[in-house]
Amino acid sequence: MAEVKDSPRKQYADSTIDTKGCFKNLNDFERHKLQELWAKLFDNLTVDIDEVRDSHDHLVSPLVLDLDDKDLEAKAAKSKDPVYQDCFFGETIQDKVDFKIVSAEFKTTRADNTLDSHIWASIREDVPDTLILRFLRARKWNVNDAYDMLLTCIKWRHLERVEEIIFFGEAQNEASLTYKGTSYIHGIDKLGYPIVWAPSAKHFQKDQSFHQIKRYLVHMMETARLMLKPPHEKVCLVMDLKNSTLANFDRSFVKLFLKYLEAYYPECLSVAILYKGPWWFSGAFKLVSPWIDPYVSQKIMFVKGSNELAPIANLDQLPKEYNSKNSYSYKYVLPKPNENDILLDTEGREAALKERNKIIEEFKTLTKQWFEVGKATQEAKKLLKPSDTEHDKHKKRASSAAPPHKGSKSSQQKSSSAPPEHSPASGTADSSHLNGNTVHTESPVQLSERELLYDYQLKLEIELDIHRRRDKCQERLSMAARKLDVYTRAKSFYHRTKVISEDGSIDWSKLE
């Protein structure tokens, strides 16, 4: 294997997860950029999703990729041969069983069609900041660019009915795609990321419509997303190219996958391993290279054999065909009767939805306080001398910058050395407002350097206090959303095989 030099792959060499810019790992700059993005979202919460405009005041219009499948469907209709085992073109998983896999009718969790409702339908089980931060990192912390990208994703999910795809799950997926194991998730790599296996020799463009490819891809990505929790926010992808021919090279599928990965599921890829590429693949790779985001291209590794997977994953985490120490080989398990009866439990669903929405309102209140106080903190910081804004010096001077106790000699000196709360006109925060998170932001009047520093530190203290409480709140929100998920998502192969347990935990030993 080539020497690991760049940061996306270097983390495997160092056995450390890169958590910079991720949930609970933000510096001041990143925290304030996150606040700015949330503030922009809050400014438009009541706007109808169809009327949402980007930072350039243009209507948000995501690119919806589609192909004309009429010729393909016409040819398939004339054929009496299955495309894989006993699976025929256009046959779904529902067609493979004699009972209704999902008997409940789809009902959205959204209260209305506003951006507000669509945000939470998009966040689903994620800790909210983990999703928002993906877009900030993908756009190099440019708030307007991240905002536009996020809105495009939310609008795309609305147009492609992603919430409905999740609800019906495998039932409406093309059976051949699922039976083949065109892609499947198994095991974790050495950093704890789920591994997605994609054996390309099983894929042929003629075997299914482009519509079904899109549906299948969304379902797989959303299933993998259910397995991600901080700090494990990404997946390891293995594109298995062994035994593949040019007949397996589907340009439209590759373009679709890369578009989804870059635009709608950013920062979800830890590394992409191209395994045992055949002689013709270098030419095909040159064709698709222009479609690959430069940052994603840094994560691509070319591997010639299973022994070269060792730095990425332990042998007991690999399927049997990769010289693994476990005996697992992918084999699809059909849905069972009544496994989705919980989707009919409207009372349980409404109770879970009510609890999630209650925490959403709590989170929104904290978030508004958080970005407002954060703005006041930044304004206070601008008034300091450059030397006073260095983080280490703040820590060292925190105790000396604290206001003197009333009655001490220093408190009886001239007003220029009095603590900020003694000057209401100064606009600084009175300590009595700490618990209520009230921060005055009027222009300071004749404050000394020492008072300005104390003012900044007090505001920062309030901001960080809200930040900590907000983090705890969004973790509770994620847990509440996972409890709601069981009423809004059909069981998958990974539920039936007990990989995903009832409490949402993941155990790959169930498939060994």
TrEMBL record:
Residues 172-330 form the CRAL-TRIO domain. PROSITE patterns: CRAL_TRIO. SMART domains: CRAL_TRIO_N (SM01100), SEC14 (SM00516). SUPFAM superfamilies: CRAL/TRIO domain (SSF52087), CRAL/TRIO N-terminal domain (SSF46938). Residues 382-392 have a biased composition (Basic and acidic residues). Residues 428-446 have a biased composition (Polar residues). Pfam families: CRAL_TRIO, CRAL_TRIO_N. Residues 409-426 have a biased composition (Low complexity). It comes from the Eukaryota. Residues 382-446 are annotated as: Disordered. InterPro entries: CRAL-TRIO_dom, CRAL-TRIO_dom_sf, CRAL/TRIO_N_dom, CRAL/TRIO_N_dom_sf, PITP/CRAL-TRIO. This is CRAL-TRIO domain-containing protein. It comes from Smittium megazygosporum.
